[in-house]
Amino acid sequence: MGLSGLGIFHTAIGVIAIVAAVIDFIRKGRIDQSQFTGKIYFYFTLIASLTALGLSKKGGFNPGHIFAIFIVLLILVAYFLYSKKKGNNRARFFENFLLSFSFFLSLIPTVNETFTRIPLGHPLAKAPTDPIIAQTLLVLFMLFVAGSVFQFIKQKKINKSA
What we know:
Blueprint: H1 5-28, H2 36-52, H3 63-84, H4 89-115, H5 131-161
């Protein structure tokens, strides 16, 4: 697969972060930073994003690095809202959205890299512009939008009862 040591570490950490987020989405409908899985998502996404800055297929700064920096900013703001605005239920709207958006953004390079590498020897996509990548990302975007609406409605109910 042509991965460097850093690439293997980045991939392993990133997969763990994605699994943790999926577990939280299934259990809570959101990434919950008060739960072990939410903490794993935060720290492993932070590590995966920072290690992504050391990776480049073609050398130099690229769009993947921009994604990584943006994801770091999103999760740091979400963490700030979680830790400093505990009693503020309005902050939960933004925290939920930022974590979900960071998750969606992390799936863009994940889908691209996975589809252009697997299965070995005959990957699903030949290039990032392959239609299967665009179609998969469109489905993931629709799930992100639906999930964000669900989270908003659920948080609104929580805020009313508080």
